[in-house]
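task queued by scheduler; priority normal; single chain, no ligands, no partner chains; default sampling; output format set to structure tokens
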Amino acid sequence: MHGRLQERSRYSIDVTQPDTLTQRIKEKERQKMAQCEQVKKKKEYEELKECTFTPAIKRAVPKQASGPIVVRGLGRHLELKELAQRQSEEKAERERKVFLTHVTNASTKPYTVPHPFDLSSYDKKHEVSSHLRLLPPQA
């Protein structure tokens, strides 16, 4: 039984040399990490050993198209873009004529120059608050 006390358990810590205690702990940790890494690599190797797939890679460069490349819908897209441009130009021309945006000072007659406007929406809250102000206070 005395011999068992002399043997060091792998879980026991030798506190007689505190200087090297942290180094020993770090070394044990590195050994554990290395062992875990080795087990992982071995397991991965065993899994991949059974794989037999090898991809067939073509080294030839694909040929360039000899004719024009056809893009479906491009004609319609360009047509719609041109139509939108034309509508925008027509709208600007109508505004120029109606609102007299490009008036020259050659004319000496005074007149009012109309400007584009936005119609406001009906504000019911404003109407109710204005009616409440008109009512006499109730006692």
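post-processing summary
- The two ends are 106 Å apart (CA to CA).
- Helices lie at 2-6, 21-49, 74-99, 124-134.
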